[in-house]
Amino acid sequence: MLRDRPACAAALRHPALKSSPGADSTSVLFLDGDDHQRIRGLLRSIIAACEPLPAHVRDTIERTVFALRGRTSIDLVADFARPVAAAVTGALLGVQLDSEFLDHLEATAGNLEIWFDGRVDKRAQTAGLRLALALNRATPAPGSGLAALREAGTLSADELLVTPVVLAHAAYENSMNFLGLAALEVVQGRAAGDLDEAAVRALAVDLAPARYVLRQADEDVELAGTSVTAGTRVAISLASAGLPFGMGRHACPGSVVAVAEAAVALRALAVVVGGTPTVTDIRWKPHPVFHGLAAATVRPS
Q: What is the 3-state secondary structure of 152-209?
């Protein structure tokens, strides 16, 4: 496990540390080299269309949060983080995301388990297949992310099935977890100031919704003064290194959108909950990589 920032930054940029756990995949998360650059470049161009955050997306976020006014209790995940992340993900893809779709999307996080014990999470695999089929059948809005993926002409048939699911999960899971964590900071009075984008980015550094990433040495290398043999898996802490969005070729391409959506949502939430809300029933997700709330009940003041 690498923890200090210089060592983590060097490892994230190291060409011999690969993103594949050893299984064949068309997911951009597990690719390196030309295929990774090709798919990532397409995803980056899609995400760039939401920078700065379009007015209609800001309006959707504010409507979602201000709809909570008058509630005697608010679950920071079910009532706030989940619907906000879903609204932005749906706007990016150009499709409406229902509750069943979101359940499957959250289940796909289990696909990372292959890094830990080499086994495939059957539930996560099934959820991913259902999502791929649902997105393949969907009719996206013109000019949307899903439409752009289909129209690009640079993805293979397999990549065209997998990449929309990867985009949806990346846009949704980390944002939902960060929104929940940051909301808890707001309601407990630990997030002072105007909650502008600079303050929200600083919150992301402190909270680190993605705790670490794993890489596999493709050859013998030296990392932080330690010899690492080919085939060794290396854990790189994003949390302790202060790199919530990663670094290098696999850095999060949507960090600007994630920060912008959180700033809008958190400012609205601060208005809704008032100055002295109370928080009970705080529960945490058990996932080793994705750090987030499972639930937290807030009673507005």
A: HCCCCHHHHHHHHHHHHHHHHHHHHHHHHHHHHHHHCCCCCCCCCHHHHHHHHHHHCC
Is 99 exposed, middle or buried, given 0-12, 13-18 or 19+ CB atoms closer than 10 A?
A: exposed
pLDDT digits (tens, 9 = 90+) for 49-63: 999 999 999 999 999
DSSP state of 113: G
- Domain span at residue 119? 28-207+253-299
Cβ atoms of 178 and 204 closer than 8 Å: yes
pLDDT band at 226 (very low <50, low <70, confident <90, very high): very high
Amino acid in the structure at residue 200: V
Does residue 171 lie within any of the structural domains? Answer: yes
Distance of CA 31 to the CA centre of its chain: 18
Whole-number pLDDT of residue 215:
95
Q: How many folded domains does the chain comprise? A: 1
**In CATH, what number is assigned to the domain containing residue 79?**
1.10.630.10
